[in-house]
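Quick sanity check, T9SS C-terminal target domain-containing protein:
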Amino acid sequence: MKNLTHPIWLFLFVFGISFAQQEKGIIGTDNWLKNWTEFNPNQEDPGEPTQILTGKISKDTKLSKREVYLLLGNVFVVDSATLSIEPGTVILADYKTKASLTIAKGAKLMANGSVTDPIVFTSNRDVKRAGDWGGIIILGDAPSNKFGNGSVASYFPDLNPSDYPKTNFGGANTESYSGVLSYVRIEYAGKRMRDGYFSGLLLAGVGSKTVLKNIMVSYSGANSFQVWGGNLTLDRLVSYKSSGNDFKFNFGTQVALNNSLAVRSPFVSSSYRARCLQVASYDDQREVDFSKSLTHVKAENITLLNESNDLKGDISRGLVNEGVYVGKSAYLDMNKSVISGFNPAVLFEDGIVVNQQNLEKIKFTDMYFNNCNGNIYVEYNSNNEDLENWYGNSSFLNVYSKSANDETFIDMYNKKRPDYRLRINKIIASEKDNLASEDIGAQP
């Protein structure tokens, strides 16, 4: 009987470990990155533009796949108009005028591509660079925690004052509908402004009925995805080699981020400290109403990856930051996710007191921390013993490992069709972090 039950229990144990690993990070029976994504967009030739989009779009307009469009200057969709875009349509954003597209509150963007015919927004330069153009802004009337309504008017310093209302966002409608973005690529956006940067995609006060899935932002000159307030669900987002943050949430955002990927390069980063995931409730606490909701992010099946081939050297040169940054008064519930190759994996803002009340706001469960220079720290504090004891409790099911990228992910070095799902049965996990900070570089 012993000889029979032992192999059965061994099989069940191995199967259970494999199944648990398979559930971490981005998931899918097939590689859902195939066909609609593009990891070498500079090699694409969309052709010459045949139509121009400029000024204000104040009536329902449809863009056709048979045309190539040039986005010229700051284009606004206003007066409750709907801009519809056929699958496979290419929109070239003008570099000289630093073009951008803004969907005003009440207007809609219906950009519903397909897996074989994605909609592409990209730079019109022959040799494209991060920050060639502005990006896409969608403004809704869902709540934020700002006093009154918010505005993006600072993004448009030359805007006529009579048009300022078109830059407002926020309201009381948590279910507001701003349209659909599905199978959409946004490339080389994130232009620099006088007092900051555009993001690849900025969602401000966007409500829960808006559909946002299968969106790729690549080579952004600033943040890839930035969300202010709103109540929304984001599925299968991809941020690739952004200079800024990959996913940045602020001003009372209530969001579920599912099955999404961020890939960073140590050689592509802005001068300010950028992370894969940044969660905050405010920039300046004087600008928010604390009687309103604080930012609450639920992130599940997320893969955050630093593509360094020399992690120790890149950390010593100051090229690698933390993977996740959590600000004061913000909530983060992250589970079944992978954080691989950062310095450290997670950083809490200075001033967050390590106690049960605060740690219950910031949850990490069923995680896979791989090849990081330390796991979870408070900013400017190298003693993380309390945090290690808390999140290292076996009830959280967190796993710590030291594995090379090619052992961890199925086929991340495939230039045409990379696969960033975890490689099953190739992960050697341990109960303790086996990548000691002294092996790589200084702790935070």
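Posting the structure with no commentary besides this: Helices lie at 2-23, 311-316, 356-359, 385-391, 405-408.
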